[in-house]
Specification:
Radius of gyration: 31 Å
Largest sheet: 2 strands, antiparallel
Number of strands: 4
Helix content: 55-70%
Order of helices and strands: HHHHHHHHEEHHHHEHHHEHHHH
Distance between the termini: 27 Å
Structural class: mainly alpha
Number of helices: 19
Length: 481
Amino acid sequence: MDKKTANSSYRNPLTDRYAGSEMSFIWSPQHKHSTWRKLWLTLAKCEQALGIPIDDEQIAELAAHLEDIDFDRVAQFEKDLRHDVMSHIRAYAEVCPKAAPIIHLGATSCFVTDNTELLQIREAFAVIRGKMLRLIANLADFCDKYKGMSMLGFTHFQPAQLTTLGKRFALYLQDFVLDFERLDREMNELPFRSVKGTTGTQASFLELFNGDHDKCRQLEKNVAKAMGFDNVIALSGQTYTRKVDYFVLAVLSGIAQSAAKIATDIRLLASMKEVEEPFNAKQVGSSAMAYKRNPMRSERITSLARYVMNLPGNAAMTAATQWFERTLDDSANRRIVLPEAFLATDVILSILINVTDGLQVWPKVIAKHINAELPFMATENLLMETVKRGGDRQELHEVIREHSMAAGRRVKEEGLDNDLLDRLRNDPAFAAIKDDFDSFIDPAAFIGRAPQQVEAFLNETVRPLLAANASDVKSGDAVNV
């Protein structure tokens, strides 16, 4: 394909610009349709083992042509047949003439389409799982490093009681741990459709086995086991219930929610110049404003997360509108939704791994912001300690009120620094604590148990999780970040 042709048609940015190679391959036509062939081979082997007259030469012929798919030939068939599964059966039969009579024996189209999608979901979950572990490890290191660094806490995006940088990021980390646990549960419980027949009754297989119900059930179990599944969905129509897709997309939506939360907060922190995402030496922040360091990675995360978070609603509509044993209005929709949900989530995690690999912290800016607000927060401590040493609470309260109003006017009207603490330090009303004054305004005295909370969470939850899954950690792909 020449450049003119390649750039004259729409290209999906998830695969063309963002996604990693591993996730892209899982949802590729080659992997999808070679998996169809593996399913046909597995069905033939399992049928043979249960007495269906299929010979070893037919099995060998099927096994020899799992990957060499002639997609041009398939397209020729589909032009006339208007049926993708039948077109692939015809193309497979042409290169497997001896096995042609037994390809797809007893099966319906959903034997290959649904089972393949479940296999792809499981493989894609494994990629997401590995990247989540890497992200969790990155955040754990960051939280440990900064568990004691005081910073302003915020409620309503207004300065509130101090927290620590590590504690704030531990909140993001906890969300991802919760997402990981749900992903694991969904991945472990994911069912295989296996062999169910045209309306889910297994009538065609019962006919093949001359009314032997036990062999029908054994075939179902054997095919699933051969494809790596212990769990087979108990009942189906022609398709597995589309509620499974909803459950899958809900997990991805949860990951996207957590990613959007941390990325949004990083954008706010960047605006405050406290914490910033990595910025390459030659990176351009703006085509007009050369000085800018836009948080473009975090913005991309929130952009893609918004897309993923909305997909469960789509899956819910599909599950709710399937007529009786099946209707085909799910097919075209799911061809888009399932791959793109995983591709987008994969990109989100890869970018977030990149961001958390190189977060830049500016301690002096953080300290400056603390110093601008701490005087007001410290007044209660100063008042209580002075009362302990013989001061009058009501008189002290009035002194603080007067100095606070004056300091506030200085900040708001004149744009000067907050000098409240200097005013109180030098006021005779607080002479009893003047020598110990600084000990009562140390930011570390205002962070409560934040460092201990972080350490306990890391020791009791995060580090055991990472240790138990050390071999499954995946790095972020070299995507366009």
